[in-house]
Amino acid sequence: MCGIVGYVGDRDATEVLIKGLKRLEYRGYDSAGIALIDGKLIVQKGKGKVINLEKGSKKNNLSGKLGIGHTRWATHGEPNDVNSHPHLSETGKIAVVHNGIIENYNTLKKQLIERGRTFQSQTDTEIIAQLIEEIYTKSKGVTFEQAIRLALKQIVGTYGLAILNIETPDKIYIARKGSPLLLGVGENEMFIASDASPIVEYTNKVVYLDDGEMAIVTRSNYEVKTIDDSPLTKEVHELAISLDAIEKAGYPHFMLKEIFEQPRSIADCMRGRIDVENSSILLGGIEDVIDDLVNAKRIVIAACGTSWHSALVGEYLFEQLAKTPVEVEYASEFRYRDPLIGKGDVLLVISQSGETADTLAALREAQEKGALVLGICNVVGSTISRETDAGVFTHAGPEIGVASTKAFTAQVVVLIMMALELGQRKGLISSDEMKRYIAELSRIPAKVEHILEHSDDTIKKMASLFTYAPNFLYLGRSYSFPVALEGALKLKEISYIHAEGYPAAEMKHGPIALIDEMMPVVVIAATDHTNDKMVSNIEEVKARKGRLIAIINDENTEVKDLADFCVSIPNTIDCFSPLLTVIPLQLLSYYIAVNRGCNVDQPRNLAKSVTVE
Predict the structure, then answer these.
(1) What are the backbone dihedrals phi and psi of residue 127, each rounded to the nearest 5 degrees, phi first?
(2) Disulfide engineering: 335 pairs with which of 314, 329, 365, 479, CB 3.0-4.6 Å?
(3) Half-sphere exposure of 566 (CA within 13 A, CB side)
């Protein structure tokens, strides 16, 4: 969601801010703006894309050596010029950009209006600027830093904040509670951002703020404190990403680039963790808690969106390979039903960004109840990676496209490795079986490469035939059911075509009523132990004139003869099949969206990192 960038140093702040906001566009937004201090406080903002902001900044010849910028994803107030960030205090001396939601903003706003303050916007953010100014100007002897702290103690909700004051023109004030914020440390310059993408071009040294912390930043120094004014010493981390990793590298869209990166991202996820020669797996991130996993009464997996689909694959994996009971929860619902979880249970949270607000809430709820909490995420230094008891990084590399692709396959790879290691330690997988699993897992990157090389053109042509279909139905059994859900989600996200995923056997319990000659039905029929049953479901679709697209393995000639269109993938062990079957579905969604003229990397209304509940 919303993005923050800030700069203080000798560079042209306008250039740094605009470039940074462009790198944050992938998070999803509807408006953008910057505030600069150059003898006076200057604000340029408005509804629409960063390119519009850039044009306006050049037209007005904006410049300065210190500033803050923002891309907004609307939560309070419609997207328009007035509701765009930065927001000013009534005197125009204080500027604020904000990620998050102020839950008690109505109460605070009413109190401020009663005391004579006037508001310009419909946002919750404006009350922050107004409240800080009220405290600063009307409380005798209170410094601006103290006014910020006093204001934050009155605020209920989440925030990542960057604040300017014309009276302290060499400082940027930042604070965090529930919304990610980091500080980039340069040579006589400092950077602020909601994630690393805007600053990786300039520095690889970062300081991550934790909840309840704030910092006062100048070009040569930074001071981190708690909101209660206790000084903190923070570790400086080195970024693991490079500038090249967040560029398109010649692809028309980040999504297509990330689909084609999957042979490498899957291999990177396994690197150093699987030992083909000795047929073993070692996940160092959970080594200290492996006995707790072995002895766990059950594993609960909490996630959202695509990560929830990978969690469903994990349920099949852990129950088949490790005989451990598993429940999969929507993280957004987990804490609202007083979940029965505690000592002896393991909560496994999955998040690409490591900042998903609902998933963090589930994590904290489980920790309070005494459960062991493990994490699977992609971003080193993220909140989930810091707050979980242990976990595994996916090492998929930056994922810029809002519709997740390589994150899904990397998460599934981690879940496969966890289930195999757990099954082996519990004595449930023989050495011969483990040898077979490890050997096949090592071949998966090459098989994904084969699909990309041999199916891309076929799928591109197929997509042209279904570009304007009003609905899609995706069907799968066993390990293919979560893939059906994921395929439907991808199509919905980027092409805006309504699509549903179902367990294939459930089709006749309702969805079959939708099938006619206008309904494309995608069946995933590449798991050997369910193919016979899938044939029956396919016959039911054909009897109702549904147009059938089948994802099959090389030997599944029976389904091939029945389907209108087929994409064939290499054979693999059934429990590894999601790593292969999902690839054609990603490509199908991509090419349909391109044909429809949709904004593939930044689909409407969506955000890459959902940091509000």
Answers:
(1) -65, -25
(2) 365
(3) 17
Give the pLDDT of residue 538. 77
Tens of pLDDT, residue by residue over 360-375, are 999 999 999 999 999 9
Q: Is residue 191 part of a domain?
A: yes
SS3 6: strand
Tokens of 439: 């050997």
Closest C-alpha to 283, from 448, 445, 384, 413:
413
Q: Are residues 174 and 288 in the same domain?
A: no
pLDDT score of 48: 85
Catalytic residue among 2, 304, 377, 575: 2
Per-residue pLDDT tens over the stretch 221-271: 999 999 999 999 999 998 877 666 777 888 999 999 999 999 999 999 999
Instruction: Respond yes or no: is residue 377 known to be catalytic.
Output: no
Domain coverage including residue 565: 446-599
Could you write out the three-class secondary structure of 518-569? CCEEEEEECCHHHHHHHHHHHHHHHHCCCEEEEEEECCCHHHHHHCCEEEEE
Report pLDDT for 139.
87
Q: Is the pLDDT of residue 611 over 60?
A: no
**Residue 304 is a catalytic residue:** no
Asked whether residue 395 falls in the same domain as residue 454, the answer is no
The arithmetic mean of pLDDT across residues 182-209, rounded, is 92
> Does 606 reside within a domain?
no
Q: How many folded domains does the chain comprise?
A: 3
- Mean pLDDT of the 165-171 span: 96
pTM for the full predicted model: 0.80
Secondary structure letter of residue 102 according to DSSP: B
One DSSP character per residue, 105-169 reads HHHHHHHHHHTT-----S-STHHHHHHHHHHHHHSTT--HHHHHHHHHHH--B-EEEEEEETTST
